[in-house]
Amino acid sequence: MDRRQERASSAQIEPPEVARLRHRLALSVTYLTGVTVLALLALSYAGVAITLSRPALWGLLAGNVAVAVFVAKAPVLGRNALPVLAAFAIAFVTPDPYVHHQVAPSLFLPAIFALLVADDWLVGASLFFTIAGFVIRGGVRSPYLHPELLVVASLAAVVLVAAHRLRLGLYTRLAMSERRTRAIAAATDDVVLILRPDGAVLKPTFVGEASKRVLGREPDEIAAMTLRELVHGEDRARVGQVLDDVRAGEPHPVAVEFRAMHSDGDPRWVNARVINMLSDPDVAGVLITLRDVTEVRHVQQELERRLAHQALHDPLTGLANRRLLLEEANDRLAALREGGAPFCLLFCDLDRFKVVNDSLGHEVGDRLLADVAARLISTLRPDDLASRFGGDEFVILLPSTTADAAYAIASRIVDAFRAPFEVAKQKLHLQVSVGVVAARAGHETAESILRDADVAMYRAKEAGRDRAEVFEPEMGARVSRRHELEQSLRRAIAQRELTVHYQPKYRLRDGAIDGFEALVRWTDPLRGTIGPNEFVPLAEETGLVVPLGLFVLEEACRWFIGWRREHDVEEARIAVNLSGRQLQDPGLADDISRVLAHTGIDPSCVQLEVTESVAMTNAAANIETLRQLRGLGPSIAVDDFGTGYSSLAYLRRLPVDTLKIDRAFIASLERGSEDESIVRFLLSLAKTLGLRTVAEGIETADQLEVLADLGCDAGQGFLLGRPSPAAEALRVPLVADIPGKSLRRAARALRAITTPTPRDV
Asked: Does the predicted model carry a pTM greater than 0.70?
């Protein structure tokens, strides 16, 4: 870059405040010169002897006025012209004897003046213009023609130019730094504050319109305030504690969210990042950046509200779920023991629903259940609480209701269900059997009330269905069957009559197998197949789930070792469920350690799954238990995530590796749906926490495609593979067909690879 380009570049990046300072200096000099010439003219007319003639003084005054106008109208050109004019003027106003007998200090004044207000080339030029003025003026021979003085003047010019260029370089670097800072600042909406050690705002730096938009205040207004005045009253103690910690020497940036007061009186949620820069001489304070997160906060609160609603309500029908019903019943039972109002439970079970569901498909079945819920609501009072308990079972809590009044409501429900339902242009006939029970102070828990209502409901079925029955103590058949089932389950566990089925999981990015989930199944010699929904809750209630869980873990580990021997897939893992009762068992860690050692499986190949609601029940103790289990080598997964409404603070503390998104969010998943927004949020949350994600209950290709596009890591469901016995599970495909042409081609290519034929087990 030549000097001309360098001067142009320097002028472009010169800080505005420096340019303004130079301009003011130039104007000041012209004004001062004008006043001086006017004074000399006044003295001349007063009779005082003046070296310069009056015409010369009038000429100087006219020239100075012209220069002043020039500087005012054309700041840059005028500023550069001023040192040249000053150089000529000094040569002609210096008395001749003074010039003749000594080197005039005035020789260097124009150059020094140029150093302040002119461009760099004028620093030397103004010096030589002064010498030229002395040479061409009349009078005695000028000493400035002596060679030694010209050499000294040249050296002085070089030194002054070097000083000017050094100063210009400092200005350039400062301007470039400020320009970079402004460019970065322009790209953000953050408000930047530097605080004194006492908390007062020392130097506010506001990016664009950030201060006005975030706080509705001008920078000068904020500079006159303390941080305490900006913070909402309820948040001051918390923010003050953070500042105290930072000032005390906290070396790392600290993030805190609080409400900052807007000028309109409404608070704005801001995310503050606090950094200790007291030791930095350029800052000498605490640096705080404020980012407006009000909208993000509102979105988060809305999502949390939705998640809270999902956690307590059935996604298909919109009714309360089992958890909400039991919580409400337990609260009312506690009040009843203290003399509160009576209440009743109705246990409703649909007759013939399974036939309709199996013959017409799940989609029709789901629409029918939604219509059933609407019809139930139409028969109830505003304060009654209806819940879907699972499958085709509904439980209704009737507050401030006697048994007789409850029976009347139950009969009304039975009558309402005698009218056909119209779904998919078909008329479907359903009946309902209802069990009625009045809560008593003698009931230990809501589950015991529910058990009596269940007994009454089965009595209604035995009596011909399509009716309601009130619980009576002699209805012991249901209890008897439960006792017999418990004994049979105890024997089946002891004699290892249960079997374990295995459902595959696949990675959604490439379709490769990700592992299996072990699921227990029971076929009783007398009763036939008994569903897990029936015997697993019984095992949980009776404590049999502890030996049952160890049986499943041992069988799954042995089977997986054989599967790994046949298929060399290093990343796959076998997942086994843990129940709440197992987590409460103090010997759980020792039992699992013995099974892992006994089977010889690599512990890292095992994943232990616990539901979100179980993990959050007695959370502190469960977190410690899960940490012990993870210390043994297995990874931990949170099952049915999104339904338990866990605290994000607790979720961060859980020693988990994987989140399994509950099938309730997958069942109605489609593009643009509310469930897609929730699933997207859950996946984003998992990614933020560094956790893998697995989607449960994938049954359609559309669901699979949406999940793959959203970035879900893995999935399982009937579409990808049903639970199958051990021998069949050995032969499940190692690659699933995931939506996307390239992935499907990769899947077909991998399937074409010859793999060893699994051995029968």
From this structure: no
